[in-house]
Amino acid sequence: MFNLFQNIHIDWLGKRRIFIGISILIMLAGLVSAIGRQLTPGGTDAFNLGVDFKGGTVATVKFRNEPADEDIRAALNNVGIHDAVLQRSTNRPNEMLIRIPLLEGSSDSGAVAPDQSKAQVEAGRAIVKKAIDSFGPEAEGQATLDTDPNAAYKIIGTDSVSAIAGSQIRNQAVTATLLGCIGILLFIAFRYDWTYAAGAVIAVFHDVLMVLAFFSVFQWEVNLTVIAAILTIVGFSVNDSIVIFDRIRENLALHRHDSLFKITNDSINQTLSRTVITAGLVILSVLSLVLFGGEVLRSFSLALLVGLTLGCYSTIAIASPIAIWWQDKLGEADIKETLAPQRNEKMATAARRSVTRRPVTR
Fold first, then answer.
1. Per CATH, domain 13-35+165-356 is 3.40.30.10
2. Which of 10, 154, 248, 331 is the most buried (most CB within 10 A)?
3. Does residue 39 register a pLDDT over 50?
C-alpha cells in the first residue's frame, strides 16, 4: 500500500488548543458577519439566500436559436439580476426556465397577497423581457415563433415562487442533517464508545458551522445545491473520523500500557497518509468544479471545497481531541473493542473485551 509518510511522529493532541482556537476564530468571524449584516440599517441579510429560499419569479422562455448560458447571464447582469438560475428543458428544444429573485420593493414574507404576487410576476416578466430583448424582439400577443418570423423568443409562461416553499425546504434540510447526526451518534456509540460518537458528531457540526461562516462572510449564494453539499460533507467527515477511531481501538489492544494520549497521536499519524490521499484526491476534483464548473455549480463546488478541506482538518484536530478530553474527564469506563484473533484461533471466535482507560495526561 502506498504511504506518503513514513515513521511520522507529530504531536497532534499537543497542538489541540491552537487548532481549536483557529476554529473558534473562524466561527466567531461568521457569527459577527451574520449578526452585523442583520443589525446594520440598510445592510444585507446574514446569508445571501437564492431563489429557492427567498422566492421570486420563474419565466419560461422559448427561443428560436437558444443563446449560451453565459450570454443570458450577461444580459441579466446588465439589468441588475445577478442571482438568476437557468434551467434548460430536457424534452423541449430551445426552451429554458429563468428564475430570478424577488425584485427590490417586493414582499419577501411567507404570506404574499394575490395582488402582490401578481405584481411580482409582472415585474419579473418585465425585467426578464428587458434583458433578453438584447437577442431580438419577442413574439407579441397571440403570435408565436412560427407565425412571427422576425421574433427571436417568446415568453410562454410566468409564475411566482413562494418564500413559504423555501422555508419548508430549509426546515427539511435542517431536520435531515439533525437526523443524520443522531444516526451517526447511535452507530458510533454502539460500535465504539459514546465519547467517540460525541467527538465525531461535534466535528460534524463544526464543519457545517465553518461552511456557513464562509458563506456569510463572503456572501456566496445559498441554494438547494449548498444543502446537498453540506449533507455530503457530513458523510465524508464522519468516514475519516471512524477510520482514526478504528485504529485507536486496534492500538488499545496492542499497546495496553501506553497512555490514551500517545495511542491517539500514534493512530492519527498511522492513518495520516490515508486521510491526506483520500481527501486530497476528492478536493482536487472539487477544485476543478470551482474553476471550470461555471455559475450553475459555483455555490455547490465552493461549499464542497471549503467543507471537505475543513472536514479533513476537523477529523485530525477536532474529533479526536474532543473524544479524548471527554474520556479524561469521565475517568474510567469501558471501551468496546474487538481484539485481533490469537494464533490458531478462528476470526469468528475473536473475543470482545473491556479495557480500562489510561490517563490522558502525558
1. no
2. 248
3. yes
